[in-house]
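Q: Got a minute? One more chain.
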Amino acid sequence: MPQIHPTAIVAPGAMLADDVVVGPYCIVGENVVLAAGVTLRAHAVVDGRTIIGEGTSIFPFASIGLDPQDLKYRGELSELVIGRRNRIREYVTMNPGTTGGGMVTRIGDDGLFMVGAHVAHDCQIGNHVIMANNATLAGHVVVEDYAILGGLCAVHQYVRIGKYAMIGGMSGVERDVIPYGQVMGDRARLYGLNIIGMQRRGFSREDIQGLRNAYQFLFSSEGTLSDRVNETAERFGVGGPIGDIIDFIRADSSRAICQPKGANDD
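A: Always. Here it is, folded:
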């Protein structure tokens, strides 16, 4: 049977795997599903239509699955789906989806969400994502695998953060961030590539050097970004990390692409 502390409140209807641990003063709502190995530390609250995957740990005072902070929300039966082996630290807030965003907020596997991080309604978060202390996502944000968001950064609604991107601390991100990009600033601009992150993840020297060359050409000052994307594809190919960036820029988005300071915003 699950280990439920006598002071915890688990509503009838909640589904808990046999080895779930629910600590002191936690609250678990009636539509919550906790998979094997989930641990709730003291004072954690998990409510709404929330599914939490195997091995995820939730720390004190986190608020998971409660109503989204969206004035258009009318109580629709939306969901929050959290993957496996995530670490959700103190005071983290994660909200379910809404009718306007597909009804599901989704968190991947193996993420680290540090103290005070916020994931708003309808966000889609990949695997191995790190959100440092008080990093904040507005609604409908997409964060791809292995992205790192620095402390106190804020991401505008509908922005996409590409895989392996690095967001500097205290940055305000209003535009899409390319995969492998590094951005910073109170109105964030692109400051190059996340080379250290690529090295740590085992990318080859050839991949990194090829990406550097493509990046310099792609964000040169000549022509429009659309023209440079096409020329980059012809000159450097569309495979590997270069292809990831090309596909990202060509994809439909309501936000512009974050570019270096002084670049043409086209």
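A: The first strand starts at residue 3 and ends at 4.
Q: Perfect, thanks.
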